[in-house]
Amino acid sequence: PHHQSTSFRVRGKIFATAPPDGQHLHLFLAEDDRERALALHSAFAEKLLWGGKVVGLRVRLRDAQAPAVKALIEQAWRHKAPKALLR
Hints:
alpha+beta, 3 helices
């Protein structure tokens, strides 16, 4: 758990969280990936703010396309994974 959300981690680093509402997914992407996702998927993605700072991407699952969400999850995982795992 991470606060009230389910968290997904790679080697202890959070790359995604799922709030208890079951309606959203929070992804922690590299800034370039996040900005690209916002441009490509504005129908279901928005900036995730924490303390006024953009920290990730908030995905509205009911509006999202499954292949796009899968690709975004993989990008978030790659962003947080150690280089040794990426090989």
